[in-house]
């Protein structure tokens, strides 16, 4: 049986790095505290008194005695006050007051560690080509996905706890919408959406029946296709509900970032960043991308520009490139969000009436205190897209190399190896080795059941679905903030 070996060493080293180094050199903290982000400080009550022309001279005239106690009403100021907020760079001390900062720091730093482990493991597999080792980087990727889903679930439950407002109704509505959308997508044939889900499920059913027959059980498929798609649609509806507010928030930050951008290059990158999920969605629409590239209309003869394996590799690289672009544009979006404080004050100046100083301070301070919530809504979908793509590459037996002759390898049948091991083992002296070998054979049999064809179809669909949900919600948010909100 293969021993993890080098991969275990890499995992232990990375765990030590996370424990010793990351608390001092954190990418998550650097993204917020590198000096490029500036937040607006709320004015003090004394500053508001001075601006309102009310010097604090003893007790306010609105104070009154009640049962021997002095009851003071909150100070109010005109809404059209000439107020200009002061800005300050985000520092490490400021992050201590941010909501969800530990969750944000853990998700980003653990994602960086998992990505490094994955890269080192891919280099190791490329040069050493082990056959009997477990790829431990898959565990890291699965942990990253679980943490991202957990964070999104926590943020969604926070919206459900709000009594006032329609956040709960929005989440439920989009959840039902994405459930219907997932059921509709799952019945589309492979001629239009080229996931390979039908082929993968058929291969899984056949392999499972053969496995059950070898175990002496009834040769019946463990799950029907309808049941499989039904539970997959429920899971997709949950993902869609979790990605609802991240998409809506992204649309608002995109519009604000466009207003801040002065250079054409920055504006172009912002547009590409917003349309990145759409590009990812189109990569699996067969008539638009694969059929056109594989058989371009060039005169009478149709010469394919690349092989299917090369197209699959380019698709992976393009998704990673778009994820990198989204990470690079994170600062512009977060700064656009922080500018909401001044935007709210400017909007307040256009209104008539008065506002209490406490409400004004809360309105300004609330924007900064929820910075990490917005950062999580921006980063979590990005993390899910990236590591779902990495899982698709590894479990789907794709290649990183762009070669016309590259062909994905199929899983190796270990039955001959297992029989030879059984024949070489002595019957009396190797009982422990026999047990180990039996476990190895059982794992090999399960590997033959869960084939790369199944993982290709399932992970391709999930990657496409995350991008589709993010683009759908952000497109609705763009329409809402541009046409349905009245300034």
Looking at this protein, list some descriptive labels.
single chain; 487 residues; mainly alpha; two-stranded antiparallel sheet
Describe it:
With 487 residues, the chain is mainly α. The protein has one domain. Strands 1-5 form a two-stranded antiparallel sheet. A hairpin with a 2-residue loop joins β2 and β3. α7 packs antiparallel against α19. The longest helix has 33 residues. The protein starts with 5 loop residues before the first helix and ends with a helix.
Briefly, what is this?
This protein is 65% helix and 4% strand.
List strands and helices in order, with pairings:
Layout: H1 6-20, H2 27-33, E1 38-41, H3 45-51, E2 64-66, E3 69-71, E4 76-78, E5 86-89, H4 101-128, H5 137-160, H6 167-186, H7 197-214, H8 225-242, H9 244-260, H10 264-282, H11 290-294, H12 308-328, H13 330-338, H14 340-349, E6 354-356, H15 357-369, H16 371-395, H17 415-424, H18 431-449, H19 452-484
Antiparallel strand pairs: 1-5, 2-3, 4-6
Helix pairs in contact: 1-4, 4-5, 4-16, 5-16, 6-8, 7-18, 7-19, 9-10, 9-13, 9-16, 9-19, 10-12, 10-19, 12-16, 13-16, 14-15, 16-19, 17-18
Give the overall shape: elongated
Sheet with the most strands? 2 strands, antiparallel
Spans with pLDDT under 50 lasting ≥5 residues?
55-66, 404-426
Tell me the series of helices and strands, N- to C-terminal.
HHEHEEEEHHHHHHHHHHHEHHHHH
End-to-end Cα distance, whole Å, is 67 Å
- Helicity, in percent? 55-70%
Strand order of the largest sheet: 1-5
Beta strands, count: 6
Class of secondary structure makeup: mainly alpha
Kindly estimate the percentage of residues that lie in beta strands according to DSSP. under 5%
